[in-house]
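A.,

Following up on our hallway conversation. Structure tokens first:
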């Protein structure tokens, strides 16, 4: 028995007058030819309904060439048939939850509209969704009306350089650019080996090995200009882990492996306790309820730097109390005093 790609759904309606996905049509053609061999393209078009003979002819060619199935045309009987048995065709089947997951994945790259990555993801996900419209009652357009994801802080300048950086990362090509540091007065020229482009706290960042500074650095795409992909290629350090690099700090900041580590302990009360307990803030975090009703918790995490968590603590006002380390407690107090004095 000839086997062919296992795509998995099942058709449960004729869907006359609606747009047919190619995978669904292929499933119907194979099903009809298995039930009654030697049907012509015209007969198949009438049996399936809502599909032209020209479309059926294209699908028959696809079945023969792409699926490599033993499909032949019998000159005397004027119809198509399989010269040997084929396994049952099983198109793609998605649950409602899986379709929602695909929808969320597409919306996650919506800020990159206009790039090759967005186009590839958009087309791929819609092909998957179209392959199984009858296996779920929920349609892609229904999801557009039911769900949304707001991408805040994503700038057009990010998208402008994203495609170039993606090519450089995948091609292991060095790049040069001018970079404006947050506290810098003028742009500085940089030459780096790009390792990764990622979204952190609603902003896009390039993680790269800075050749002049001889260490990994993070660059905000919106402060990057005059990007040039160079001819020089590089080999990635096999020991470098993006997960470890990003996990060293709290938020956007990252620190070298030998940076001092702090065990952070913060007591949250009231509304802040509920907000903090409801989200995942850091890979090393642990949250301990101090009261049964959840109105008081203790947040604990191991961090390599305290700059961003200082601002995080301040954002919760009187409902956050630093228990450790002393360095963080002092930093919060100093910043609070400076706010009052400014």
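Then the amino acids I'd put at each of the 342 positions:
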């Amino acid at each position: 028995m000839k086997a062919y790609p296992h795509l998995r759904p099942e058709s449960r309606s004729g869907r006359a007058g609606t747009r047919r996905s190619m995978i669904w049509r292929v499933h119907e053609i194979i099903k009809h030819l298995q039930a009654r061999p030697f049907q012509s393209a015209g007969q198949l078009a009438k049996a399936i309904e809502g599909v032209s003979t020209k479309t059926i002819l294209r699908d028959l060619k696809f079945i023969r060439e792409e699926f490599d199935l033993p499909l032949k045309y019998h000159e005397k009987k004027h119809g198509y048939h399989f010269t040997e048995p084929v396994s049952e065709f099983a198109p793609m089947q998605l649950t409602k939850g899986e379709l929602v997951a695909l929808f969320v994945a597409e919306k996650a790259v919506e800020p990159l509209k206009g790039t090759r990555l967005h186009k590839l993801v958009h087309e791929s996900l819609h092909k998957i969704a179209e392959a199984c419209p009858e296996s779920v009652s929920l349609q892609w357009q229904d999801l557009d009306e039911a769900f949304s994801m707001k991408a805040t802080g994503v700038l057009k300048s990010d998208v402008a350089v994203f495609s170039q950086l993606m090519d450089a990362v995948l091609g292991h090509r060095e790049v040069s650019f001018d970079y404006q540091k947050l506290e810098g007065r003028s742009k500085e020229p940089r030459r780096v080996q790009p390792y990764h482009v990622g979204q952190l706290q609603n902003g896009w960042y390039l993680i790269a090995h800075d050749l002049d500074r001889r260490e990994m650095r993070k660059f905000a795409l919106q402060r990057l200009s005059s990007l040039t992909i160079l001819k020089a290629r590089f080999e990635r350090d096999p020991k470098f882990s993006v997960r470890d690099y990003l996990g060293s700090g709290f938020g956007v900041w990252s620190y070298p492996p030998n940076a001092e580590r702090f065990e952070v302990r913060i007591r949250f009360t009231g509304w802040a306790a509920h907000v903090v307990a409801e989200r995942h803030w850091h890979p090393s975090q642990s949250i301990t309820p101090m009261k049964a009703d959840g109105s008081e918790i203790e947040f604990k995490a191991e961090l390599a730097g305290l700059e961003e968590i200082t601002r995080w603590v301040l954002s919760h006002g009187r409902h956050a109390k630093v228990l450790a380390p002393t360095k963080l407690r002092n930093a919060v107090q100093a910043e609070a005093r400076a706010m009052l004095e400014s």
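Confidence is low (pLDDT under 50) at residues 6-19. Curious whether your intuition agrees with the design.

B.
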